[in-house]
Design goal:
By secondary structure, this protein is an alpha/beta fold. The chain has nine helices and ten strands.
Amino acid sequence: MTTKPDAMRYFTIHHDGVTIPVSRNGRGRPLVLCPGLSSTQADLHELIELLRRDHDVVAFDLRGHGLASAADRYSFEAFLSDLGAVMAELGRLDLPSAPVLVGYSLGADLVVHYAAERPDTVAEVVLIDGANPVPEPFLTEADLPEFRAMWEDQVTAQKAAEGTERQVLLTAQEILDLNLELDVVRSGILGRYRKIDRPISMIMSSSMAGDRDEGLAPQFNRNWRAGIERLVREQPHIATSWLDADHGLVFTHASEIAQIIRCTQGPAGSGHCAGPGDWSDADHR
C-alpha cells in the first residue's frame, strides 16, 4: 500500500490474471463504491470526494477499466469476481465495521449478487440506477444494429482516453454481449433481493434513456420505472429516491446522491441528514 501526501492510500489486488487498482481515503463509516460498465474511479471523482466527507471510501476499477489491466474475459461473473476480490482484501484489514456497499449501473447488479451471497460482510446496500428487475428485456433482436452502432461510436470516442485513468478497453461487441447478459441476469434478480437481510436503498433516474419523446427512450423509461415498481411491491422495505436525470446521474447529480446516501443510513451513519426538500428534484419514498 502506498500513502500519498494527501493521505490517499493506493493498493492493487491481483486475482484471476488481472490487476485491480484500489484507492482509500476519507473519514467515518466504511463505504465501498463499485463502478459500472464503461465508468471508472476517475469518472466518479466528484461523487467519491463528496462521500469522503462522511465515509472511509474504498473505490476501485473493474477489469478493463481505468488503471485496471485488460482481461481475456468480460462477463458478469468475471466482474463479480473483481468485486469479491476487493471485499476479500478489505476483510483482511481492520475495518471498524462492515462497509456500506454502493453500486452504480452494472455495479449495482454486482452489489446485489455479492450481498445476496455474503450479507454478513455488508452493513447496508445502496443501488444507483441499476439492479432493476425490468419486466421486459432492454435489447431485442430488432434493436441490436442500433445499439451496436451506438457502442461502436462510444468506443471510438473513448480512444482519446487510452493510456489514462479513464480508459475502457472493451470492444463494442464485448459491451453489447455484456448488456445482453445483463438482461438475463436482471430477469432473475428478484430472487437475489430475497436473500439480502440488510437495509437496501435505491437512487434511480426518472428518465434513464433521456427525455426525448421519440425513438426508444419513452419505452425504455417506462420499462425502467415499471421494474422498480415491481421490486417495491415485492420488497416494500426498500427505500427509493427518484432524481430528475438520465442514466448519467452520478455525473450530473453527485451532490444529491451523496446527500441521499447520508440520509439512507441508520444510527451508525454520520453527518447531517437533510429532509427531502433539500434536494429539489428528488422524489424520495
